[in-house]
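Students often ask why we bother predicting the structure of a whole assembly rather than each chain alone. The short answer is interfaces. A chain on its own may look different once its partners are present, and contacts between molecules only exist in the joint model. In this exercise we take four input lines together and write out one structure for the complete complex. Read the inputs first and try to guess which parts will touch.
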Amino acid sequence: MNFSLTEEQQMLQDSAARFIGQNYSFERRQKDTSLAQGFDPELWRQIAELGWLSVPFSQQNGGFDGDATDLMVLMEQFGKGLVALPYLPTILLFGRLLDLAGINTSYSKLLGQVIEGNIQGSLAFMERQARYQLSDVKTEAVRSEQSFVITGEKALVLNGPNCDKLIVSARTSGGQYDEEGISLFLVDANASGLSRTDYRLMDGQTVANFYFDQVKVPTEQLIGQEGKGLMLLKRVIDQALLGTCAEALGLMHRLTDTTIEYSKVRKQFGVTIGSFQALQHRMVDMFTACEQTRSLLFRAVCSAASMETNEHQKNLHALKVLTGRNGKAVGNEAIQLHGGMGLTDELDVGHGVKRLMVINSLFGDADFHQQKMVIRSLEA
Amino acid sequence: MNFSLTEEQQMLQDSAARFIGQNYSFERRQKDTSLAQGFDPELWRQIAELGWLSVPFSQQNGGFDGDATDLMVLMEQFGKGLVALPYLPTILLFGRLLDLAGINTSYSKLLGQVIEGNIQGSLAFMERQARYQLSDVKTEAVRSEQSFVITGEKALVLNGPNCDKLIVSARTSGGQYDEEGISLFLVDANASGLSRTDYRLMDGQTVANFYFDQVKVPTEQLIGQEGKGLMLLKRVIDQALLGTCAEALGLMHRLTDTTIEYSKVRKQFGVTIGSFQALQHRMVDMFTACEQTRSLLFRAVCSAASMETNEHQKNLHALKVLTGRNGKAVGNEAIQLHGGMGLTDELDVGHGVKRLMVINSLFGDADFHQQKMVIRSLEA
Amino acid sequence: MDTHLSADDLKFRDDVRLFFTKASPERAQQLLKNPSTFKQGTLDWQKQLYEQGWVAPFWPTQYGGAGWSVTQSYIYERERVAANAPDVLPFGLKMVGPVIYTYGNEEQKQRFLPGILTGETWWCQGYSEAGSGSDLASLKTSASKDGDDYLVNGTKIWTTHAQHADWIFCLVRTDQSGKPQNGISFLLIDMKTPGITVSPIHSINGVHSLNEVHFDNVRVPQANRIGEEGKGWTYAKSLLAHERTAIARVADSMRRLEKLRQLASRETQGRSVMIDDPVFHARFTNIEVELMALEYMELRVLAAVANNQNPGAESSLMKIKGSEIQQSLHELTIELAGVYGAMETTESATAADIGHDFGNQARQDFMYGRAATIYGGSNEIQKNIIAKHILGL
Amino acid sequence: MDTHLSADDLKFRDDVRLFFTKASPERAQQLLKNPSTFKQGTLDWQKQLYEQGWVAPFWPTQYGGAGWSVTQSYIYERERVAANAPDVLPFGLKMVGPVIYTYGNEEQKQRFLPGILTGETWWCQGYSEAGSGSDLASLKTSASKDGDDYLVNGTKIWTTHAQHADWIFCLVRTDQSGKPQNGISFLLIDMKTPGITVSPIHSINGVHSLNEVHFDNVRVPQANRIGEEGKGWTYAKSLLAHERTAIARVADSMRRLEKLRQLASRETQGRSVMIDDPVFHARFTNIEVELMALEYMELRVLAAVANNQNPGAESSLMKIKGSEIQQSLHELTIELAGVYGAMETTESATAADIGHDFGNQARQDFMYGRAATIYGGSNEIQKNIIAKHILGL
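Now the answer. The structure tokens for the assembled complex follow.
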């Protein structure tokens, strides 16, 4: 039984904390998110040099072969630093899907470029009607000779406006809700017949809806087995979910600490508001929410080695439920205890809350995962 | 728009408050509930003389013809006084069912004795497996010549050990869960073939499980139409539900006031605990819970004139939901803020909480009524 | 005990309904949504109400009020919201107006009331300061006598629509000594006076409606002071209870709840829709039950007012519950929108382009709605008030 | 980062399991349930553990401890609860024992420790007083020197099982002057000493386990004082953190949760069972998720202890969450029982007669469980501790 980090992990944590602390003020975030891409490509190159882009990838693809703990350590620092970078879409979704797709020299080459920071990627897995259901796919891919022809719309594609390549889930057989018959394709962002609408989410990141109008994709760009895409997709998203929950925890800690510090300096009625017992107890609740979430995060990290097991799946659901609920509570309290200031764009509090809300809606919110948990326990 | 009481109602409230205040201390309750019947028959005779037993009954049956407001006024005082009397089983359930069953001279005579306080009654409508579903009835009544023969078990019959007569719901046709086919019968407590197990609920009232082994009941003791008993049962219970919610509100007020008063005298760390802001805000929440419940009680009282309407039914569901939830919250906080003392039998707090819990479980708890509300709104 | 409406009240309700159907509030709402047309939309709408004689019904008749009963005002408000018609801006008609006709002198009434009714003068409120949020009485903006004038110095914050305002009503400190409440005076200040600068505050929902207003040796005639010097706090406070009851926004929440029900009946989840999801519907009814209670809590307060009782601390209770309900509605709505609840629409990416018609609004409402538990005296302050004044703690 | 058990630990787990299957804990539980056989059942069970050498594993080996690692103690506790085996009474083995071997003198160790291990001496705890609940240090029971003795006067309250006890360990005031904490001493008192009377306190769950213990000029040899005079507070406090972690009762809650799942899979609602009710199951998983987190919170604390770090204020956090979870389990269980959750069984009306096998227990657990957020330092006090010592407020 051991919850301490290895020396390597400790080093990763320290260097991440140091680098972000020195290079990424809140003003920097404000500046970066105001750029067209929603982040600073220069910063991306820097963290590539630091090796962070290689953390989750397998050695065979030139990665650092990091485990769940490594990922947690890094993502928590991103959260604490309120860092705006497309690590989730390009590394954890696009990159990891290729990484998990099996040995394939062309994927390896592509991942090499990803790790060097020369390529931005996206995973187009959401559709308007699907809510959080990965298997609800209307977009179709029809085989014709040596290629597939994709038609349909994918929504809310993270990093869509920036991506050079994207992976799309489309139906090669079965009905809209079937788990079978979903295939994954590697598509060039500039493929003909592919158009998009760009917009932003409230955390400042750019997203796009992609419209596939008879987009031709050569058969060798089918990833994994035809019709068996869902399983691969789930594995990638399970890991991304764990990573983003670690980022959420970082955000929750930041919001809690900021609020406590603010309560020690903000004066009303001649005393600091931190001296009011009612507020003290509520800040204790914020702190408790963080510790509780960390405990469940550790639990999921400890079971991550055996991904497909019922136990790990249940831990992931529980983690998403608690991160969602506690994240909401912490965010709302952070704003409330900051008073009017918490509602201004110039303070980091509101931005932390918005990022937290985006994370909590990604891959299914608390209620969604709670029901998954219920179904799982009824089946068991 | 008017929420003030009529002169008559004001008089009823004042006299009830006065009589209970003068004659019913907590020590009196302790003494009364320790009696075999769980209450003091002498007190029952006294309130009969005060005319309180006649409040909800129609004039044609010698009643006071009171409306929902009258009932609310009286029941709230019972709650505030933590009064242990079988008003619910004998008057609101047994008596009112006869009262609503239509003009019938034998019922009128019976009700006359009820109003004089000479008869105790019960309504046997619960069964072990039914949870809160009135229509889930396994007890059977089979017609043979000039009588029905009843066989089965009715559980948790309020006032069962004390009742001279009881009304039982039994199935004359249909399957266990059917709404049709339920009939109501007036049965003598000493009818042959009828036996029971006596016990108590945590609020000190006596209850019994009744076992019907081929109990013969003459056909003229069938109440209302054969097979149509559920509707009558529902109407009686709807009204009883409103009355007990008023009692619950009285209890919530008592617990809240007691807690606030205690916090003004109980000292810790050299100051009264009522001076701690965290506790102040929680007592404010208790107070808010009372006011909120009162508002919904008024709402249900105002729509009670049109009982069968969707609106009133929805108001009743909502009232039971909120009374249940707020009652729990107020009860738990009352104990918590009293500390260890709140857990002793010698203080009234725990007894108020237990009575509140019994009421909240009767006729369906908060979750049950919330789901009824959902079903109703989906049908609408 | 009943909530029946008299025949006259029913007749009145029909008149109000008819008016709102004719007044085409949708158009007004459209103009108000867009910042560039917001001011025009506000003025147009106020003009319509003014011509109908309903712009300030709650004012005393001699100043242009409609002399409605409490019930009528209640009916009017319900119908207005049901018709999704905009409310008037409160700063002139609900805040400074009443102060002027209650505590102002004849000359001030003559001078200011007409412009408030017609909308000719746009008013904003100068109470809060960065240093004094919940502790309003600690405000520092000073007004020092200089001949027949005051010289005003300081900064007001959270000033809604100051960028459009012609006049601002301020609480200023005219006496540094003694109890903070006693040194405060109530001043009316022309926004065109030299030394006033307005700087925008951008909110986390991306909208600009709040401002900072800086006063640098701003010269204000003493004739613009309402009532006595040092009594400003009393004048301002006399309005707070009414404000709190209004902040509960019961009718508005009822409309939002219905809207949410419709959206959830449409939003798919696999083969079914969200309203059929038992857990979602349970959360929905949790709010519905609370709102059903609040609706009658408001009626109880109104009935009390009708009997000339003071709503007093009950209004704090309504403010707490009302704002909590508003926020749970915002929360459930944005969660219904899923990831779309995070989307930001633009000219080049409208709701239609993105294919989601309530996500952007849900986001803005949620974010802006966080203020509901903060402004008008934070909910924590309301709890302190109840603890002190009702529970005697 | 992992929670793997070593081969030795796995072996140890199997040994523990084997022991508990042999020890037939069901029989012990039966005896404990019935007040008339409670004492005998307690002693029998302790005897079995004593003979196995597991009655006080956490004690230092030289005093009879088992010298287990933190992980082993954890495994033991899990297996014990999984086997539904009773815990030992804490007063001797977990409270006064450690105080004696840590702060007592040789003679005291010789005299008292053996009886604690064998169960020959039944101990109870004399800390709380009516006037001092959360504010323990304000206790008034006095001990004044009289020759080689103290004369003890005062009343202790909430004394569990005092009616069975041979000895009581007390915090008493030996010095009225100065900081309240500094005037407190730790005394061991023979319950047979003249001047001691025990009066029962009946709890709202109808059970009698608590008592008041009155001291009227009770003569106690100074030799029965542990350590220095005036240091009693420090000795007692050194145990509290451990106590709080224990109060979390993680393993026990896990067993209750499983039990609740089984009951809900059996309790009917129309044609279906309660566990299939989505709202009920949502409430169930709310608790499950919290408990899954608490389980790892405990592991984190244990890991810290294993690395010789002090659990410190984290134990307050566990106490809060642990007690909240216990109470939500009690609440959901009693609500599952419906109206039967209010029933009281008797000899003449057993659970079997009434036809409901968990209602009576659910009621007792719910009522008794209300104490979980009160004793061991109320949750409000724990929050104060966290605010002060962790958040620096």
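Check your guess against this: The beta strands of chain A are 121-124, 140-144, 147-158, 165-171, 182-188, 194-201, 206-218, 222-223, 267-268, 271-272.
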